[in-house]
Amino acid sequence: MLEVKNITKVYKTGNVETKVLKGISFSIKEGEFVAIIGPSGSGKSTLMHILGCLDAPTNGQYLFEEKDVSQLSDDELADIRKKKIGFVFQAFNLLPRATVLRNAVLPLTYANISKDKREEIAKKSLKSCGLDEARFFHLSNQLSGGEMQRVAIARALVNNPSLILADEPTGNLDSKTGELVMETFRKLNEEGRTIILITHEKYIADNAKRKISIKDGEIIEDYVNNRSI
Amino acid sequence: MLITDLFEETYFAIFANKVRSGLTILGIVIGIGSVIAMISIGQGAAGSIESSIQSMGSNLITVSPGFQRTFSQVSAGRGSAQSLTIEDSDAIAQEVPGVLVVAPEVSRRYQVVVKGQNTNTQIVGTVYSYPQVKNIEIALGTFISDQNVRSMSKVAVLGPTTRDDLFGENANPLGQTVRINGINFKVIGITQSKGGTSFGSQDDIIFIPITTAQRFLAGSDAVSTISVQAENAQMMASVQSGITNLLLRLHNISDPQLADFSTLSQQDIIESASSITNTMTILLAAIAGISLIVGGIGIMNMMMTTVTERTREIGLRKAIGAKRIDISLQFLAEAVMLTFLGGAAGIILGSLLAFGITFFTDINTKISLFSIILAFSVSAGIGIGFGYWPAQKAAKLNPIEALRYE
User: Fold this and answer.
1) Measured between CA atoms, how close is A104 to chain B, in angstroms?
2) Cβ–Cβ of B1/A54 closer than 8 Å?
């Protein structure tokens, strides 16, 4: 469903050029659960931004569902993010002082869906991520970390995206709640969702069925994870 | 994004920071409030000046004599000539179309004595039509009649202030005698009080028949003013030019530049008075407008802070698919909503101020629909104007950097 062909990314600061990605190629099929693993500074975040259509590569091609998205404008990229991609961030990025339900509904407000329908979809999504209905009208900053991340996952799912991108989703959680969140991802994958997980921790990456290991902007390993839980 | 969503987002954003929003709005409230109050004072003043002009009589045209020119080329000043007569006044009444009533008058100040009391006041010699032309009402007795004028009766009608000065407050002097310039006059009436206007008191005055005034006091046939009332406001211009043409013909003057009289219509006075009050209103509103601009800068400042504070939120919104226009509309709507709330509160504040000014002082105020519409559109304009830059700043944020913002 997505394919990157020899993409590079160069950042310019004054006269100094920093090559962050040095020709990366791989493809991911529908229904895969892929972990992109690498130490900090390896370029995995930059790669994730390109995969998530938040940024465009300097060179190379990125085909998303057979469509070349590497040269699209900001607003065209926003349209793809809206319809096809769900993000889960390390810092959750929930709206503070807003209810759980309002947070989950947020992506749908940009999709011109009627208000009743939106809430229905959001409630279903929240339930499927294991959130109790009693919590729907709590403010997001009253929740525990694990609950916050599950609200964020529910938010990523409301648009029924073909790809879920999780950037260090357990980075701000203790290992026990982190495990709970990873279980949610595994369940979603079993339901047939494509998931890309970015992490620097091996035991988190072990949840995925395939691992792409990068270092200094290059792929050093791409293999099927037999130890997948 | 639907309009209702935009309102909801705006509502949440503004009420999330009640105190800050309230303080920011205060600038607009004070600005709009003072604009409304200032305009209401200006328009109130215009209204009271106009009504005081109208109280001198409606649809009035005043004809006065021109310069007194002597052989030595010395001009004694406008109004000094003795070029108008009762015959002119009669001719205007008979020949100019559209004239309702004509009242000639001779006026001058004389010493008036009553049993030890004395005063110096305006003595106006006139005819029976004078009260109609000048909107004067009789409180007691009668005004000068046509018969009094024809027979040069020595009768007088007193203004209420003069009556108070000579006979004591609220006395009834009907039938008593006043001595004007050494001649006895019998009091036959008292006029209703009109209050002082900006154009001299109409209460400190004595009316006597014009013929009596010419014969016994002035000693000449000249009249000092002819007041003409037109049938209606539309006729004013044609009556005014009709009078000018008639008098030029009667006085054998071919060049209008050399006319020995001048005409002044009430319309002219009202126009020049309202141009003064308009200038004053604009001046007041402009001073108040400065505080509106300061308020607008306050809004811009708050919006800039808000955009910086909510950088991560903007990043998230962009990540989940918000386009530039969605983001800029959201922040623009917030700014406009702030100024709109401020505008609404400002209109209430301004109205209360205007009401208070009228209540505690004698200054008239008038809140017009115009000033309210102006206030609303100015506040919306300030919202758009001062909200545009912060909104653009938000819309242009790079989502990746925004999401990383600490």
Assistant:
1) 11
2) no
Tell me which chain B residues have a C-beta less than 8 angstroms from the C-beta of A108. none
**B85 in helix, strand or coil?**
strand
Cα separation values, B372 from A104, B132, B378, Å: 42, 39, 10
Q: At what angle do helices B18-54 and B369-395 cross, to 10 degrees?
A: 150
Q: What class has domain A2-223?
A: alpha beta
Cβ within 8 Å of A, B 302-321: 312-313, 315-321
pLDDT (tens digit, 9 = 90+) per residue, B353-390? 999 988 888 788 888 888 888 888 888 888 999 999 99
Would you call A13 an interface residue with chain B, using a CB distance cutoff of 8 Å? no
Q: How many CA atoms lie within 13 A of B329 on its CB side?
A: 16
Kindly report the number of other CB atoms within 10 A of residue B195's CB atom.
9
pLDDT in tens, B59-116: 889 898 876 555 545 555 555 567 888 889 999 989 899 899 999 999 889 999 998 8
Q: How far apart are CA A97 and CA B13, in angstroms?
A: 10
pLDDT digits (tens, 9 = 90+) for B194-213: 765 545 567 889 999 999 99
Q: What is the pLDDT of residue A189?
A: 92
Q: What is the pLDDT of residue B317?
A: 93
ipTM: 0.91
* Percent of the residues in chain A that have a pLDDT greater than 70, as a whole number: 99
Instruction: Provide the residue ranges of all domains of chain B, joining segments of one domain with +.
Output: 3-52+272-404, 82-259
**A positions 92-121 inside 8 Å of B (CB):** 93, 95, 97-98, 106-107, 109-112, 115
From the list A55, A97, A110, the residue facing B320 with the nearest CB is A110
Model confidence at B145, pLDDT cuts 50, 70, 90, reads very high
**What is the per-residue pLDDT across A41-68, written as a single tens digit (0 to 9) for each?**
898 989 999 999 998 899 999 999 888 9
Q: What is the DSSP string of chain A?
A: -EEEEEEEEEEEETTEEEEEEEEEEEEE-TT-EEEEE--TTSSHHHHHHHHTTSS--SEEEEEETTEE-TT--HHHHHHHHHHHEEEE-TT--PPTTSBHHHHHHHHHHTTT--HHHHHHHHHHHHHHTT--GGGTTSBGGGS-HHHHHHHHHHHHHTT--SEEEEESTTTTS-HHHHHHHHHHHHHHHHTT-EEEEEES-HHHHTTSSEEEEEETTEEEEEEE-TT--
Would you tell me how many other CB atoms lie within 10 Å of the CB of residue B116?
Answer: 5
Which residue shows structure tokens 């154009």?
A: B199
| Alpha-carbon distance B313 to nearest alpha carbon in chain A (angstroms) | 7
SS3 B63: strand
A74 Cα to chain B: minimum distance (Å) = 8
Return the pLDDT at B198. Answer: 47
- Per-residue pLDDT of B253-293, as tens digits, reads 888 877 888 888 888 888 888 888 889 888 988 888 888 88
Q: Is B163 on the interface with A (CB under 8 A)?
A: no
Asked if A107's CB is within 8 angstroms of B320's CB, the reply is yes
